[in-house]
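Fresh eyes needed here. Have a critical look at this protein's tokenised backbone.
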Amino acid sequence: MDNVKRMASQNAVVVFSKSTCPMSHAIQTFFHDLGVHPTVHEIDELPNGREIERALANLVGRGPPIPATFIGGQFVGPTDKVMSLHLSGKLVPMLRKAGALWL
């Protein structure tokens, strides 16, 4: 878990993803459409990817844990949580506060 927290705190928006996951691709496209350039960690391409996935599963509390999004070093959740924040108008202020959006 310490490794996940360290990786998640290195940039304003961090997405733990899998290269073969369509939801991972969708969340990355969504952020790019907002003008946000997240740091993406493809866990299926990392040597410790299984360890990271287990830590994220514990954090999410349900499966699958991917994609898992962190904003400003804080865990936001998988795609459904990110979209709920967006629909409620809370996502953009979070992104601004984290320094991921300027306008």
User: Anything to note?
Assistant: The chain has one domain: 1-98. The mean pLDDT is 93. The domain at 1-98 is CATH 3.40.30.10 (Glutaredoxin).
